[in-house]
Design a protein that fits this description.
CATH architecture of the largest domain: 3-Layer(aba) Sandwich
Number of helices: 9
Radius of gyration: 22 Å
CATH superfamily of the largest domain: HUPs
Number of domains: 2
Bound molecules: flavin-adenine dinucleotide
Structural class: alpha/beta
Order of helices and strands: EHEHEHEHEEEEEEEHEHEHEHEH
């Protein structure tokens, strides 16, 4: 029977690292507290020193397996995770629902002979067991699932924002992992995310454009409305697929999860994959010429109409109000 400790596999690379780690720390702390166990963080890959210091303020122990070079080496990460699981004998192992977590969690679970539950929105320890909230049927419903396996292996959806303020001072120790003389997978190069300086996951106001804006030059309307509202522009996936933008601007299941105070969707239908990334926004405004577009099911305010007609006066009005407020 495993003990009551919880392992969280934090990441040191780019992308949604911070929000993934923050959610892992918050979720792992809650489980460890409930079960009366330790919270142990696995930090594997390169560039781990600074991250280890940062994370040690939130966990009981950080175990660092620094392979140098690339931030992700799937074989080496797996060996590190297996070594730590073998040593700690945890009750739960939590990964972020990122490319790394999605790659590692099922393989760790398979090695332990348990199932991996992916993309969990919440983990709820109750008196009679542990329950998970997971999106099912492409996000159409949220299911409450009882986890009977032990240890529990899950991936947790990022989205916790920044790291909380420091609560403890955990130790930092090296995790010795024997190098694999003949790895089956070797990283060749990392395609780093393009840095635009805009982190839509942290924005308080987002104006997003979809295929309904028509031509690429019309996206200026989205940028202007974002500028007038003091927010940032974002987009749905087709605009990324068409090569107009990089994925750092994409909202949705395969892009970024956002939770701004205001989300304005312009010419976006509201497919489940898009809603998945923005439906927790505080206030949602949608402009769409189709009154039956699913985006109106989650919108608090809706304009049924053409973006080309409605956006210019909205921009002018927003600029006038901001001007009056600042003047
Ligand atoms: C595995 C997987 C992952 C995915 N991940 C994502 C993701 O992360 N993010 C994402 O966004 N999508 C994602 N998708 C794609 C998703 O299914 C939809 O295809 C996509 O969200 C549609 O984008 P859209 O709303 O911009 O375009 P469309 O669905 O084509 O909708 C365009 C909308 O604009 C409206 N419109 C047209 N002209 C005007 C006008 N002049 N004025 C006003 N309204 C107008 C139309 O009525 C329509 O509702 C994913 C799909 C899969 C299979």
């Amino acid at each position: 029977m495993p003990g009551n400790d919880v392992i969280i596999a934090c990441e040191s690379g780019d992308g949604q690292t911070e929000s993934g780690n923050a959610r892992l720390i918050a979720t792992g702390s809650e489980l460890a507290r409930h079960w009366g166990g330790k919270l142990v963080c696995l930090l594997a890959g390169g560039a781990t020193d600074e991250k280890a210091d940062e994370i040690s303020c939130h966990v009981d122990e950080v175990r660092v397996a620094d392979f140098g070079g690339h931030p992700y080496n799937s074989t080496a990460h797996l060996r590190a995770a297996r070594a730590l699981v073998g040593e700690v004998d945890p009750r739960a192992v939590l990964f972020a629902h990122t490319f790394i977590g999605m790659d590692l969690a099922p393989r760790i679970a398979a090695g332990l002979g348990v199932i991996a539950a992916s993309n969990c929105l919440a983990l709820m320890p109750e008196d009679d067991g542990l329950y998970l909230i997971r999106p099912m049927y492409r996000g159409r419903i949220h299911a409450k699932v009882e986890m009977k396996d032990c240890p529990i292996v899950v991936t947790v959806q990022p989205g916790g924002g920044d790291l909380p303020s420091a609560t403890r001072q955990g130790s930092i120790r090296t995790l010795p992992v024997e190098p694999d003389a003949n790895p089956k997978v070797r990283p060749i190069r990392i395609l780093a995310p393009v840095k635009t300086g805009i982190d839509i996951a942290k924005a308080e106001i987002i104006v997003a454009g979809g295929r309904g804006i028509g031509e690429q030059e019309n996206f200026a309307l989205v940028e202007n409305l974002a500028g007038a509202l003091g927010g940032v522009p974002a987009c749905s996936r087709p605009l990324v697929d068409m090569g107009w933008f990089e994925t750092d601007r994409q909202v949705g299941m395969s892009g970024n999860s956002v939770k701004p105070k205001l989300y304005v969707a312009c010419g976006i239908s509201g497919a489940v994959e898009h809603l998945h990334g923005m439906r927790e926004s505080e206030t949602i405004v949608a402009i769409n010429k189709d009154p039956d577009a699913p985006i109106f099911e989650v919108a608090h305010f809706g304009i049924v109409g053409d973006v080309m007609e409605f956006m210019p006066p909205l921009i002018a009005r927003a600029k006038a109000i901001r001007g009056a407020l600042s003047g």
